[in-house]
Amino acid sequence: MAIDWKTKKQTSCATSATDAETRQYYTASKRIIRLRNFLQQIGVVLAEPSPINASFKSSYELPTPVFEDNKGTRDMLAAGRVISNFKHIDIPLTYLHTLHESSTIKTATATSKTMLANFMTKQETGPSHLRSTKWATGREYYAPHKSAHYAELTKTAQLSLL
């Protein structure tokens, strides 16, 4: 699993939270495309095995999940059209719709509590602030129990001897 992270100041003034999140989703998707192309060029296979023959890779590529906590952005991408309030970002939205239709990226729902990018942008209580500080500084990270991430972290490797 590869994780990419970037933090920077916004270059434009957004009219709403959905506007800001959609612009950043667009920026992230352009970065994802570059990373996918790079991985393919160095020989990393981004395809799933064929159900008929495990050694044969099908041409169907798995979409890259983009975690999004803003419901407005998720709804706008799921609708597949540009609504009147967001005509000023119609080119990025059309690009994102194209990527979704081609199954290059997919929107994955995330809660604000698990989005580390929200650190210091929303009011937090003492314990959650301390947890976010530890996560942001890399001192500790524990995936929530019963989550897919926790299952992957705690999965024991099965070794088979030939």
Describe this structure as you would to a colleague.
By secondary structure, this protein is of the alpha+beta class. The protein has a domain at 14-111. Helices cover 40% and strands 11% of the residues. The chain contains five helices and four strands, in the order αβββααβαα. It has a two-stranded antiparallel ribbon with strand order 1-2. Strands 3-4 form a two-stranded parallel sheet. The protein is globular. It starts with 16 loop residues before the first helix and ends in an 8-residue tail after the last helix. Mean pLDDT is 75; it is low at 56-60.
Distance between the termini: 27 Å
Output the helix-strand order.
HEEEHHEHH
Strand order of the largest sheet: 1-2
Instruction: Estimate the global geometry from the Cα principal axes.
Output: globular
Give the oligomeric state.
single chain
List low-confidence stretches: 56-60
Helix content: 40-55%
Major beta sheet summary: 2 strands, antiparallel
Q: How many helix segments?
A: 5
Total beta-strand segments: 4
Helix vs. strand class? alpha+beta
Radius of gyration: 19 Å
Beta-strand proportion: 5-15%
Secondary structure layout plus pairing:
Elements: H1 17-41, E1 47-49, E2 57-61, E3 64-68, H2 71-79, H3 90-101, E4 105-109, H4 126-137, H5 148-154
Parallel strand pairs: 3-4
Antiparallel strand pairs: 1-2
